[in-house]
Each structure stands twice: as structure tokens, then as C-alpha cells.
Design brief:
Layout lengths: L1 H33 L15 E5 L5 E4 L7 E10 L6 E6 L3 E6 L2 E6 L9 E6 L6 E8 L4 E6 L2 E7 L11 E3 L6 E2 L2 E2 L4 E9 L5 H7 L11 E5 L8 E2 L8 E4 L2 E4 L8 H11 L5 E6 L2 H7 L7 E3 L1 H7 L1 H6 L11 E5 L3 H13 L9 H10 L3 H13 L6 H11 L2 H4 L1
Parallel strand pairs: 19-21
Antiparallel strand pairs: 1-14, 1-18, 2-11, 2-17, 3-8, 3-14, 4-5, 4-11, 5-6, 6-7, 8-9, 9-10, 12-13, 14-15, 16-17, 19-20
Helix pairs in contact: 8-9
Length: 407
């Protein structure tokens, strides 16, 4: 028995050391971000790395009873994967509950008013995405407030203190609502359950909602990060109120933010930093007369980027052509708007194609062998086809052998 106790103690110490290192890295990263006003904290960097996945009827985490009565704050991370009629996220019988009802966040309290009735947040949790929920309870001001990802969502009136009792706090427990003969439950991941014996201010919630906690913060009475990653125990950072894990599986994941490459490439184009060629347009005809003596500024570009994106530019900037060493290149029979749009597309793989230039840009894309840009123009042309422009479209399609546009 003594050897087993020592083994369990060593394992818990190892888990706490690993968790502490991870928490310090997150805190250090957050403090760095908060000093960089121009760089908002990426949402994906706030989301949990380790969590418990609740999918079976018997899955539950039981935490020792924690009593909060006149003032309280509850917080938790959730990532639901399936909509259900009712699924408890945190539940203490006769005292409080945070749940999802058909994806909507709802809360209930054991108090004088409204009693055990669901208070709706009017906010639905997106499936497959992490969301942070904070709920405050203040008997003195007779109000409860719901916050989503650190932002105030809704306030409701309440009256009376929360019921104090010895019931355990259950995480992810199945509900009492049935679909047929089966009780409904929350389906998805849960992490970082915290309970406070005071009401956190709006400022505290907005600034600190996603930060890891040390466990000794003012008013914090229970903190279960659920970041152990293995085993049947979730450690309470506030003390000895460790919880028991029955059923749910540990899950580790990294949230990958959407690509912002196109945004940065557009910044490169607009800033002109490192540009080695100026592109100008010589539209000829009527447009040249309209432009007159004050043409738009040349576009500062990068030969390497244009060459990588466009086979015609690649040939143009090869050794045997004069454009390779020229500081300024004029493209003939191209309008300024079309040139700007084509260059932006080369940098970002996208551009705002106006209906007025879609047909001419389609021809230019064909000339510069930009097949994807052609298809994008083609879609705009077909979406805006009418009796006034159909002849011009047909003529262009015949001239370039565009079978899909012609058909």
C-alpha cells in the first residue's frame, strides 16, 4: 500500500510539473501579445490543447461539492460536436447548471426566482469550434450575466442566494430529458472548469477570460484545467478537491487558424517594399484620351512574384528580353483597372472583379495564360448575362475559342 501511494504521488507530481511548464509558456506568450497593441491575441492560441471528450451516455467527471451562495462566477471551455435537445456542461443538483439546449447556451439556478428555470443566452455555440463561457451570479444586485469569449452577451434578473448543499459538481453528465427512452447529453469536449466565490468584473472577464490560472487568485474556490492528458483524476489547482473521471477520453488537439497569406501578400504589393519593377498600362484608343496627361501611378511590383504566378511574366523577365533589366515596363492594350486587378490577383489569388471589366479582364487573362482568373471572370460574366451584352460576350467567346462561355 505504501509503495502504491508513493507511485501515485510521483505520477501526480510529474503531471503537475508538465502542466506548470505548459501554463507558464501560455502566460508568457499572452503577456508578450498584450504589449503589442497592433497585434491582437490570436483566438486560436487561446483555445485548450488538452480536453476531455464526452460521447457516451455514462461519461462524467465528478468534482467535490463547492458551495457558492450570494456571489459566484462560473467559467468553462466547450467544443460541442453534435446538437442535442439538452446537454449539461456543468451541473450541481439543486444549485446551478450550465447547459446547451439545441446548441444554445442556457443556465439555471436553485434560488427564489426564477427558481430552476432555464435562462436563455440567445447565443448558439458553433459546432466543432471552441467557445468560452462565463456566467456571473450576484444576489445583491439581483442579476446574472452571460459572457461568450470574454464579451457580454445577456443579463437576466434573479432573486435570492444559491442553495448550499453537499451534492457533487458534475461535468458532462447526462440530462434528465429523454429522446425516446434515451437520456440526452452534451456531446463534445470540455476543459478548464473554474468556480469563483465572487463576481468577476466586466474588465476582469474581458482581459483575463482565456488566461490559465495559478489557483491562488482572489475568490477562486475551484479550478480544474483538465489538462492532465491521461489518467482518471483531474487536479484542482486551488487545493485538494480533485475530481474523478469516469468514461470520457482524453483528447489533444491544436487549433489551426485560417490562412492569412493573401492578406500579407496584398500588404507586400501595396507597400512596394523590395519592388524591382514598375508596371504601367497603355490602353490605347478612347481610354487613353480619358486618362489624358495625368495617368495613374505605376504599380510597384516584384518580378519574382509575377514570374512565379504567370508564365507570360516569367518569359518576359527572362534573360533574352529587354524587360528583364528594365525598371519600368509598359503593357500595351491593357486598361489601368484591368492591370490593377490582374496584378492583385497574381499576389493574392483573388481580386474584386467588377462586372464592367469582367469581359475585358477575361481576354487579358487569356492573353497572360491565367486560367483560374479566366474562370473567375467567366463566372461573373455568366451571372450578369443579359440581352444587352450577350452579343459582345458571344463575339469574345468565338474569338478566343471559349467553349463554356460560348455555350
Amino acid at each position: 500500500g505504501d509503495h502504491r501511494d508513493l507511485h501515485l504521488c510521483d505520477r501526480r507530481q510529474r503531471q503537475m510539473c508538465i502542466r506548470d511548464r505548459y501554463q507558464r509558456r501560455v502566460r508568457d506568450r499572452f503577456e508578450l501579445w498584450t504589449t503589442m497593441e497592433a497585434q491582437p491575441l490570436p483566438f486560436s492560441s487561446r483555445t485548450p490543447y488538452v480536453a476531455l471528450d464526452f460521447s457516451q451516455q455514462a461519461d462524467v467527471v465528478k468534482l467535490p461539492s463547492v458551495n457558492v451562495t450570494k456571489e459566484a462566477t462560473f467559467s468553462v471551455w466547450i467544443r460541442p460536436v453534435k446538437s442535442t435537445p439538452l446537454g449539461y456542461v456543468i451541473f450541481k443538483k439543486s444549485t446551478f447548471a450550465i447547459a446547451l439546449q439545441d446548441e444554445e447556451v442556457v443556465v439555471a439556478f436553485g434560488n427564489v426566482s426564477p427558481g430552476w428555470k432555464w435562462i436563455h443566452s440567445d447565443w448558439r455555440a458553433p459546432l466543432g469550434e471552441w467557445s468560452h463561457i462565463t456566467v456571473t451570479y450576484d444576489a445583491s444586485t439581483e442579476g446574472t450575466s452571460i459572457y461568450i469569449n470574454g464579451t457580454f452577451q445577456k443579463r437576466a434578473e434573479i432573486r435570492g442566494s444559491l442553495v448550499a448543499c453537499d451534492n457533487v459538481v458534475q461535468v458532462g453528465v447526462k440530462s434528465f430529458k429523454k429522446t425516446g427512452t434515451t437520456k440526452t447529453r452534451y456531446m463534445g469536449c470540455i476543459a478548464d472548469v473554474c468556480i469563483w466565490s465572487r463576481v468577476l468584473t466586466d474588465d476582469e472577464i474581458s482581459r483575463r477570460w482565456a488566461l490559465p490560472l495559478d489557483g491562488d487568485e482572489d475568490g477562486l474556490v475551484g479550478c480544474w484545467p483538465m489538462d492532465e492528458g491521461a489518467g482518471g483524476v483531474v487536479v484542482d489547482r486551488c487545493g485538494s478537491n480533485d475530481g474523478d473521471v469516469t468514461g470520457p477520453l482524453w483528447q489533444m488537439s491544436v487549433s489551426v487558424p485560417p490562412s492569412d497569406l493573401s492578406t500579407h501578400m496584398l500588404d507586400v504589393l501595396r507597400s512596394g517594399v523590395g519592388a524591382d519593377v514598375l508596371l504601367t498600362a497603355d490602353p490605347g484608343g478612347d481610354e487613353e484620351d480619358e486618362v489624358g496627361a495625368t495617368p495613374p501611378e505605376p504599380i510597384r511590383c516584384h518580378k519574382a512574384i509575377l514570374s512565379a504566378r504567370c508564365p507570360v511574366f516569367k518569359a518576359m523577365f527572362s534573360n533574352q528580353f529587354s524587360e528583364n533589366t528594365a525598371e519600368k515596363v509598359t503593357l500595351r492594350e491593357i486598361g489601368w483597372r484591368e492591370l490593377q486587378c490582374m496584378v492583385e490577383w497574381c499576389y493574392t489569388d483573388n481580386c474584386d472583379i467588377d462586372q464592367e471589366i469582367a469581359l475585358s479582364l477575361f481576354a487579358i487573362a487569356d492573353r497572360f495564360r491565367l486560367s483560374r482568373l479566366q474562370r473567375q471572370c467567366e463566372r461573373i460574366i455568366l451571372d450578369n448575362l443579359d440581352c444587352e451584352n450577350v452579343c459582345g460576350v458571344l463575339e469574345c467567346a468565338e474569338r478566343m475559342g471559349a467553349a463554356q462561355l460560348r455555350g
